[in-house]
Design brief:
It comes from Pukyongiella litopenaei. Pfam families: LprI. This is DUF1311 domain-containing protein. The radius of gyration is 17 Å and the shape is elongated. The chain has a single domain, classed as Substrate Binding Domain Of Dnak, Chain:A, Domain 2, CATH 1.20.1270.180. By secondary structure, it is mainly α.
């Protein structure tokens, strides 16, 4: 885990900052992917790439939320639940940013 600390509070605070950073990276990557999709739509004269990207992003966001809630549920309501949920969101966010950047090339 990238956030060390002597208490769960310190770890949770660190993960909150990391998640905020990852969310910003995803937003930036989405901006690049949207620009690429818009350019593709203009080049092809079709109106499909941006709509497909928007639908994909909405589906990914719903998946991330549901999946990470499931991961949290596997902790049985224990004190590590919040940390597990944030860690999951960070991991999936990083993967999403990579996928969006790959689609922007």
């Amino acid at each position: 885990m990238e956030c060390g600390g002597s208490s769960q509070i310190e770890i949770a605070d660190c993960l909150a900052k990391v998640e905020e950073t990852v969310d910003g990276v995803v937003a930036s990557a989405l901006g690049f992917a949207t620009a690429s999709a818009r350019e593709l739509d203009q080049t092809t004269g079709r109106d499909v790439a941006v709509r497909a990207l928007e639908a994909g992003q909405a589906a990914w966001s719903a998946y991330r939320d549901a999946h990470c809630e499931f991961i949290g549920a596997t902790y049985g309501g224990g004190s590590g639940t919040g940390i597990a949920i944030r860690s999951c969101r960070i991991e999936l966010g990083r993967a999403r940013a990579r996928a969006l950047m790959a689609a922007s090339r």
